[in-house]
Amino acid sequence: MGELPEKPVFSFVGAGGKTTCVLKLADELAGLGMKVLVTTSTHIQHPFYLGRTGLLDADTKTIKEAGVPGKVVIAGRKLEQEKKIAGLLETQLEEVLESYDAVVIEADGAKHYPFKVPAEHEPVIYQITTHILIVESMQAFNHPLSEVCFRLEKAQEILNQADFREKQLTPEIVAKLLEKGYLEKLTGSLSNPKRKIGVIFNQQDSQTFEEKLSVPVIYEKKLEMPEKKKFFLIMLASGFSRRFGGNKLIYSMEKMPMYQILMEKLDWVRQHSEHVAGVCVVSQYERIRKSAEEYGFLAVDNSDSSQGISASIKKGIRAVHKENVKGECYCFVVADQPHLKQETILRLLEGFQRSEKGIGAVVWNEQIGNPVIFHEKYREELLELEGDTGGKRVLKRHLEDVYLCEAEEKTELKDYDYKPEEEAEK
């Protein structure tokens, strides 16, 4: 695709993995220290269901200020259909462009089909686009068009064959549909001599299309299915609250004890995530353990609480760990973080599930907080912790293996060392 211009704007079209490609490219650009904006000219999955936060219905000033080196910002407009968002208007995108180093746009829809031929009004390419990448999934390869192709009627027009519905999707048919469906349009009515155009064959590592297509070809090799992770939510509730002037975990906030606020949220997360294998509460306090049992959680007595937080971590891991079970992940939640949103915990779990990382954490403006997730490959390191040293020590050793989930508000990361009225006076 050649060298990138000063402000590249990538538009992804086609089917079969566009959103994954959009986010992968955005993360790679952010990894280079760039300020990256993600949006759509049609619709894209809601950031919540992508395990990310987003700026929805935000004004231009807010979107501009959100641009930070090394960060991906997803911006768009709310829709009644809660699992999708619309994109920024082209005029608004042009206004905010000056605050970003790169923009990645999902510019087409395919209703989850692995292959697509566009209609007359598709794709929706903004004028500022510098690169167009056509994505097609080769999971559709050697399947009947009727099963795998979106806009089947457009494929029929191009192929002009009576029995086209049962035609197998061969390399020759793929090339013809791409040339006639996308490339003639993108080099004709939607052409811009300065734009670069390429094709990404997703889930593909064996077929050769270079000689069949008139544009560069990129292969995203077929990957092994990612490991399905099983999350154990472990709530740490054993602190002595020495600076608080009493047991802060039973301090009433929002008309219930602080610890119960977190229990309510963990119960909600358990009901909304198929990946949660169990919830465990580690506490030296009988009242808290009894409450945990009422929620159906595993309650673990921490008789070694005087040894510091490391004792709570070890007891939690040992309580939930099962031999010969792969994919265990331990998500530690602290009981004195009442403003943490249940939706943020869920986004952390869902995003970490899709990531290839071994550690996950909630973050606000580069400040890493709780909850923190550790894959079982870090179990032994966690079990070696001593004293009042928590899992952050393990996290800092492996920063290259950390997935970060942005909190929606700064207060979500706040824990209480002092009573709220004393905090306000400080």
TrEMBL record:
Domain named MobA-like NTP transferase: residues: 234-400
Residues in coiled coil: none
Stated name of the protein: Selenium-dependent hydroxylase accessory protein YqeC
Taxonomic source organism: Blautia stercoris
